[in-house]
Amino acid sequence: MIELHFKIKNALVKMDFIRRYEELSAHFSSERTPSSDRLVYVERDEVMSIIRALGYSPMFHAKEKFYKIKEEQFDTFTFGFHIILRDGMADLVWVVRENGELLLGAPWSVYSRRLIDVNYRIKKPVFGTYEDLEDILKTAFGMYEDFKLAFV
What we know:
The protein has five helices and six strands; from the N terminus they run H-H-H-E-E-E-E-E-E-H-H. By secondary structure, it is an alpha+beta fold. The protein is globular and about 40 Å long.
């Protein structure tokens, strides 16, 4: 498996990513929201409204069916956040580029495998309501802000 860039790895460790993602996953689990209760079909406008309310400028990439926020530039680094909502689960992806070169662009579930062990799995957060989704995104955006601070 590909190693994480050292700056990415250091930032994830510094912000206690694994513990925080495990807590998010455990709280929004399939035990709490079984597949029969998941919000499988989401209204794009509702999701965009939630993201805007959390202080970000969302866009929807129709071809690949994911939400993303406006990228931010810090010195030579560009940060982005993509959100894939499928089958009542949130797949969260951070994107980091240095001078246009991709350093990170994988789902959160990959980070734990690259930090701990290739077989270590943290499940995606599951949601059954827009309130659940908002809480997941609120936590995820808080982690994103902490990641950027730890990185720069």
